[in-house]
Design a protein that fits this description.
Helix content is 19%, strand content 30%. By secondary structure, the chain is of the alpha/beta class. The protein has a single domain (2-98, 111-264), classed as Ribonuclease Z/Hydroxyacylglutathione hydrolase-like (Metallo-beta-lactamase, Chain A), CATH 3.60.15.10. The strands form 3 sheets. The protein has a 7-stranded mixed β-sheet with strand order 8-5-4-3-2-1-17. Helix 6 (219-228) runs parallel beside helix 7. It is globular, with a radius of gyration of 17 Å.
């Protein structure tokens, strides 16, 4: 058994509340027959806790938590989660570093968009993952060896483009079914899928979950990407958050897109 439920996302519908951000709960039967629960990202606020209560989900009983990267909309809920959860937390290298985003309409206007509470990395003893780390039989975390393509709207503190060396991905598997979590996939979905197939030796993915960071891209570029990923064996796509409505619409023409906020495979 492998199930996924979105706890934070831009477009969740009542009775859940929505915010710009992402948090996904994976539950998976491991080799011993027990259920492993993994929380990927925490959204930007305490909305994670409120939505979990609405779904009768006990966040204190999670087995593992990880952050896909250090943006506020993926890490801001961590301080609220820490009131309930006291287990292991994983993140990529230097996840707490200062970051900025630049307005699309005024490239001189910057705002902080890194972790709202960077001190949590030390106080919660967040475990750094670089390369490949098999947490347990059901969960494998990994970073990519290459930097992400530069994005001139997402900056480091010195003004250089953020290349997301902290971006952390996950494989969740019950031994027969495989889910891949991409967070925002700043490295690019083709780069990610190529690494999973060619370096991790995983030729089939039952479900991709996460954002594609295609918001604001042209229809031509999105179509080219959607066609290119047909070379990879991905059965279902749960694309959300930073993908954009145009990407969602185009992706549905090429792939099986899951429209529900939860599914089981």
């Amino acid at each position: 058994m492998l199930s996924v439920r979105l706890l934070v996302e831009n477009n969740l519908l009542p009775p859940l509340a929505a915010e710009h951000g992402l948090s996904a709960l994976f539950e998976c039967t491991d080799v011993s027959g027990g259920v492993v629960s993994v929380l990927a990202d925490t959204g930007q606020s305490d909305l994670l806790l409120a939505n979990a209560r609405r779904l009768s989900i006990d966040l204190s009983s999670l087995d593992y938590v990880f952050l896909s990267h250090g943006h506020y909309d993926h890490s801001g809920g961590l301080r609220h989660l820490a009131q309930l959860y006291h287990g292991p937390v994983f993140a990529g290298p230097d996840v707490e570093r200062i970051r900025f985003s630049v307005s699309a309409t005024d490239f001189k206007m910057k705002k902080r968009n890194g972790m709202p509470d960077p001190d949590l990395v030390s106080s919660l003893h967040v475990q750094t993952v670089s390369g490949l780390h098999k947490v347990c039989p059901a969960l494998t975390l990994f970073t990519l060896p290459d930097v992400a393509p530069p994005n001139h709207r997402l900056l480091n503190a010195d003004g250089s483009p953020d290349t997301f060396t902290d971006e952390l991905f996950a494989i969740v598997s019950d031994g027969s079914r495989v889910a891949l979590y991409g967070g925002c996939t700043h490295h690019g979905v083709i780069n990610l899928l190529s690494f999973v197939r060619d370096s991790l030796g995983i030729s089939h993915i039952d479900a991709f979950v996460g954002g594609l960071h295609l918001m604001g891209r042209s229809a031509k570029e999105i179509e080219e990407t959607a066609r290119a990923v047909r070379d990879f064996d991905v059965t279902h796509w749960m694309i959300c958050h930073c993908s954009g409505s145009l990407a969602l619409s185009i992706w549905q023409d090429y792939h099986d897109v899951i429209s529900s906020p939860s599914f089981s495979i």
